[in-house]
Write the structure tokens for this entry.
Amino acid sequence: MDKSVLIIGGGLGGLMTGALLAKEGYRITVLEKNAIIGGGLQNFCREGVSFDTGMHMLGGFRKGGSLYRICTHLDIMEKLHIREVDADCMDSLHYLSDGREYRIAMGREGFIESLAQHFPNCREQLEEYADALFRIADQFSLFNLKPSGEGIQQHSPEFMLPADEFIAKYIKDERLRRVVAYTTPLYSGIAGETPAYIHCLINTLYIKGTSRFEGGSQHFAEALAEVIRENGGRVLSNRTVSRIKLSERYVESVVTSNGESYSAENYICATDISHLLEIIDSGGFSKAFRERIASIPRSYSVFTLYISLKENSFPYINHTGYIIDDYSSIWDVTGKGGRWPRGLMYMTPPERLQGEYAEKIIINCPMEYSEVERWSGSRTGARPEEYYEWKRGREEAILDIMERRFPRFRECIKRRYSASPLTIRDFYNNRFGGMYGLRRDCKNMINSQIPPATKIKNLYLTGQNIGLHGICGVPLSAIITSELFLGRDYLLEKMNKE
């Protein structure tokens, strides 16, 4: 056994899994289709201004947090440039329907007090709700980097309640229910469907303390790649895997679009599961499995507006901002073919030595893939003019919303660029441009459960489709996959000792 592992996909999932295994002596090769590694961590540059492709609200990077502990284990924490957001306001929520603004402070007590100021008769409800959030999150052992042990983990009945029903169990005021659900765009929340545990994990993660990358998220991807290289591995970009060759239920090799062939003892696919099914030899997965994957709804996508700002024209804001149409919008943030946008998130990413004014702003608006499906046959760089006219119209709709919150905002704009669900689909090989992988339905969880080990004996999976999504969830999925090689709880016990 030569302990060689080839990983398809150089995004966060592939790089994190590769780094964890490389540190344990595995010889890693990562193949990334894009020119720049990192997936959602990568940066792009326009006229001298560098933008993150994603809007990164970091939970778990503060001392003692799960990401802090994982990055410390990999000896990269000190290489990361992390800025903490303001403790007295981690998020601001502005409702256009009544002009109210809610500023949410960090910490359990800060969270409760922030909302109790507006809902003084609901303080006890908020306290019970916050207790329930943390209680459910504590039941997810991996989220807290706790070894799972040999038994089957038991969860309370609330764990699998629909998130909206979970909120309603503790919060009786209808308006407050919708306010505390403001994070639904961070996990593609669907009323009556999304499990409560996902809502609880996301919210406790950020209530404990959020952070941002200074100077862009690309350096996190590069730090992970360096761990792989320092331990004898390779991270290769511009390598689009076009075929996975099978021989008697084993992967024999992978072939790239330029005709190169790579082989290893084991293989890990860190791309969307639908993309894997497109490139693997027929017979690798059953017809029933393929049909099941095709039938699972995807999380909704996003339309992103990237703006470079005129010098000294718009303040740097050290928290994430939400502008929401009205209180009823929160469980229908995409509009589903009606009025759009129903809401947006904005962020001014910090530079190193960030000053008083922002250099840029990123604005995310949830969007259904159906909005762009008419152009699904086109690819990046070769779309019809009709598509670009549509994009300009969507940009103007977003700016109209921004100006209702920040009058004369358009006067601050130097340049603007945008990305649609098609952009996400093409750059990340992500079917339908889904931001958070497969949708989780609490009424049929088994349908969206994808195990990291496949029926192909040396092929494994990692990434958000096999576990949690996002910059905290994907590294936890990387631990799950890595421990198939290293042994159950091997990494978790090691991190706890450290």
